[in-house]
Design a protein that fits this description.
344 residues, two-stranded antiparallel sheet, alpha/beta, 50% helix, 16 helices, 7-stranded parallel β-sheet
Length: 344
């Protein structure tokens, strides 16, 4: 796995605090950039862009060229694993993803056990292109969705406000739901290992919907599958650097860190700073946690919010980021303001 002590982002994940925290933004290759919108229009559909190596590499590199971030994250989507498992996945403009729902045990029985990774070769090709184009100081991040979050879309067939369909299925049919999770764990391990082999320096596991689970279900459906993925990846790549993002986990974060063995956790903007410093950052690096809405706001409010993140977390190991993805309506000038404020 390509690594270098000249990468500040990797240094933080390896245990070394940086005087100026490295930074990147979740969804930094996205609709707030005019150049992204041009490439997206050229590509056709969203998955067409994900599976065109040259175009996916181009949009991955756009924010690095524009802002000089310390890490690039490959342009893809968490639902490529269901796609590689042979499930129908499509993206409707303005409506988000649509899948064939796996909403009862009989349908779960039709789920393939092993993904066709040939379908994901374009992702690995894009990683290789980006790896070759990046400055050696800039890290490259591969990623997957956590099994719980991916399963919520697979069960419902689309996103829902509170992921009630998956939660109900996990209560009503835990054995069938476990089958979905097991398939996602096994195939996510292989997918992440292939991303490392293609040039990723680090990995992030996005559990966007972890926060809707009560503590016992969080331990079963978020923590345990993530632990298995981390363990499975490190069985082949012992020094793999992995960031977890159980969004909304709050007070459950220390247990998540302890059980999963991640090198860092991403925290959202609702996290209580003193709790995070004492119970989480004392053990692993933290990444975050600027509110994406204050980045839209700009001005003095943005300066105060950036200063607050730095005051709370920069004395320890910090990767400066947003608490979730950048919003499409974010002004470029505000991103530039944030970068100047962080880098002094």
């Amino acid at each position: 796995m390509p690594q270098s002590s000249t990468k500040p982002f990797i240094d933080v994940l390896s245990g070394q605090r940086q005087s100026v925290p490295p930074m990147w933004m979740m969804r930094q290759a996205g609709r707030y950039l005019a150049e992204y919108r041009e490439v997206r229009a050229k590509a056709g559909g969203f998955l067409d862009l994900c599976f065109n190596p040259e175009l996916a590499a181009e949009v991955t590199l756009q924010p690095i060229r524009k802002f000089g971030f310390d890490a690039a994250i490959i342009f893809s989507d968490i639902l490529v694993i269901p796609y590689a498992l042979g499930r129908e996945v499509r993206f409707e403009v303005g409506e988000g993803p649509r899948l064939e729902p796996l909403d009862d045990p009989a349908k779960v029985a039709t789920l393939a056990r092993r993904a066709d990774f040939g379908k994901l070769e374009p992702v690995f090709a894009a990683l290789k292109i980006v790896r070759g184009a990046l400055d050696p100081k800039v890290a490259l991040i591969g990623f997957c969705g956590a099994p719980w979050t991916v399963a919520t879309y697979m069960v419902a067939g689309h996103g829902t406000p509170d992921q009630a369909p998956a939660r109900m299925m996990a209560y009503r049919h835990p054995e069938a739901f476990s089958e979905i999770i097991d398939v996602l764990v096994d195939n996510s391990i292989q997918y992440l290992l292939a991303q490392l082999a293609a040039g990723a320096d680090a990995l992030q596991i996005f559990d966007t919907w972890a926060g809707v689970l009560p503590p016992t279900e969080f331990a079963r459906w978020s923590v345990e599958p993530t632990r298995r993925i981390v363990e499975g990846v490190r069985a082949k790549v012992p020094d793999a650097k992995i960031i977890g993002f159980p969004r909304g986990a709050g007070a459950l974060l220390p247990a998540y860190v302890e059980a999963t063995g991640v090198n860092a956790v991403s925290i959202d903007w609702t996290a209580e700073p003193a709790f995070i410093r004492e119970r989480v950052q004392s053990k692993v690096a933290v990444q975050g946690n600027l509110d994406p809405l204050v980045l839209i706001t700009g001005g003095a409010a943005l300066d105060r919010a950036v200063d607050n993140v730095l005051a709370n977390f920069a004395a320890g190991r910090l990767i400066f980021n947003l608490g979730h993805g950048i919003q499409p309506e974010t002004p470029i000038a505000h991103v530039e303001q944030m970068i100047r404020r962080v880098r002094g």
